[in-house]
Amino acid sequence: MSESVGRLTLADIARLAGVGVGTASRALNGSSSVAPATRARVLAVAEQYHYVISPDASGLARGTTGRVGLVVPHMSRWFFGTMVEALEAVFRRADIDVLLYHVGDRRDRQEFFQRLPARRKVDALVVVGFPIEEAERQRLELLDVHVVAAGGQNADYPHVSIDDLNAGTQAVGHLVSLGHRAIAMIEAVDPDQSPSPSQRSAAYYTLLEEAGIPIDPRLVVQVDWGGVQGAEAMGQLLSLRSRPTSVYAHSDEVALGAIRTIRRAGLRIPEDISVVGIDDHPLARLTDLTTVGQPVWEQGRRTAELVLSLLEGGPANSSVTLPTRLVVRRTTAPPAATSD
Amino acid sequence: MSESVGRLTLADIARLAGVGVGTASRALNGSSSVAPATRARVLAVAEQYHYVISPDASGLARGTTGRVGLVVPHMSRWFFGTMVEALEAVFRRADIDVLLYHVGDRRDRQEFFQRLPARRKVDALVVVGFPIEEAERQRLELLDVHVVAAGGQNADYPHVSIDDLNAGTQAVGHLVSLGHRAIAMIEAVDPDQSPSPSQRSAAYYTLLEEAGIPIDPRLVVQVDWGGVQGAEAMGQLLSLRSRPTSVYAHSDEVALGAIRTIRRAGLRIPEDISVVGIDDHPLARLTDLTTVGQPVWEQGRRTAELVLSLLEGGPANSSVTLPTRLVVRRTTAPPAATSD
DNA sequence: CTGTTAGCGCCTTCAT
DNA sequence: ATGAAGGCGCTAACAG
After folding, report:
1. pTM
2. Which residues have a Cβ under 8 Å from the Cβ of B230 and sit 6 or more positions away?
3. Which of A67, A230, B14, B160 is 20 to 30 A from A12 via CA?
4. Nearest CB to B120; choose among A55, A60, A227
């Protein structure tokens, strides 16, 4: 014999099992119309020779890739990592492979949409955590596959995310109802994204207005996403003549940075200053940070399920908004009584 | 005309450009032997119709997949995320796609090696951050592709990583040279991994012995990887009759948890207790944690390059060990003078 | 340099 | 239920 080496093909298995390639194929794919005995024989041979069908050849003939692409702007951040984990988990169960596309900075991103490296390689694309611009959307059409967005508002595509406006309202509302009036906000923007007007910020303005609290522009600081930036922003806030009694940060990571600065300045939390973030990052629990939790894993899971549904011809208009919830821990309290 | 809809094929492009499929193929693939004018024409047509070659069909004919698989035990942790980012960056530049396989817990892992979902789908496999067991190694042979390990000692495969023994030595050595003798160690083990005897622990024992410091088993606590676990371990350490003057944690995340417990207990760092970790996690900088930095991105980059080299027929025995370096910040200091 | 022709490994009618 | 044959989209070897 000569095929002791090299990869066996379907034809080999068929011959070895004494059937035609057609039957072999059907048997391996669990097609209904195959005699149980025949199937067993084929399966046995395949098993014995450690044979598995070539997904690429199969896909070529079938017209599908069996893959989905994930476009992610960050990998080393909890939110995105968790999201990817959830997505992968669902896709894996459906026997779909995950192709990873990292678009770190603006250049990566531009190149991704220009070259479209995912062309002809995926059955669907999941965009995680950033809004698609119109020009990008047009490029994506060339992919000619389903596109869904996860964890970011993307009006153009079916998406699953949280209600940022509501999340922000829960955070700021908590501060307001605690009696705070000098409420600062640290806006976190992704330096590599178009600085879209955040709903998390909108919540702040709306709520303060409703509470009859005049907006003090000096209490609003905008920084790049991240702990160090949060720390710096807080430094700025502390240097203010009339220091805020509370801080609303757009994310826990930023909040943690702020907390560090506050502590270093010798101030106590929450006695002197209250801090609230958004996310319910694992570190929030560790540091007793009051925050607005968002179901990250769930967002990933639902997104993947949405994709699977679309792949099976399901309706394309089924976006999902998941609830967030205020998690009160120990970085918030009523403001200290002052002689103001 | 009829092919205004549906995906164009190479044959279409060839016809449209007035050449044979062979020439079209060569032109698109940048093969040398094609008249500049001809190539230009083909490229123009392809461009005009937004045509790109089918990677799967191409791969089928060529015998390669153009993909590599990444096997990762965690996605939401900084170390792994960064690693993946680095790997992806290099592979992308080489026009190689990245298939992601997440093996979270032991069951995932077992299933991965049992089913080998990557079979026939990748040209190489990169195992990130965990040691391969013998049984698993045998299964991997069925993949019949290059396997390389990143960020973990895998004697069986070419790998790039740091020298854990050395890293630990730098950390503990720092404490010893500072004058500490009551040095505690918080060992971090991944609950989903085989609890291999860590070199980071070996460093501790060796160094203490060399310094003539008797080993006190109560000063060594083993916990699952993570901040909360580190915090708990520290609680245990603080409840000891003779409290340690310093703590060596296997990772920054664990160290940060420990720090939290220390602060909560009303003790000062580094005055009352020194803390040193390993990794140089971004948070370490934010929190002024003394640590032993390891070049994570670099490990990923080198690993990917090693893979590319292997794919081009390079030597298979070129493992790489990257240096770590002590980063002294503000959580370590000489022990307070006692009347001991 | 370029056109033609076999495959690459599998799926899917179409008959039987 | 099963075998035979055509086709999926592309590459490579061969003649020119």
Report:
1. 0.95
2. B186, B188, B223, B249, B253, B254, B255, B256, B257, B258, B261
3. A67
4. A55
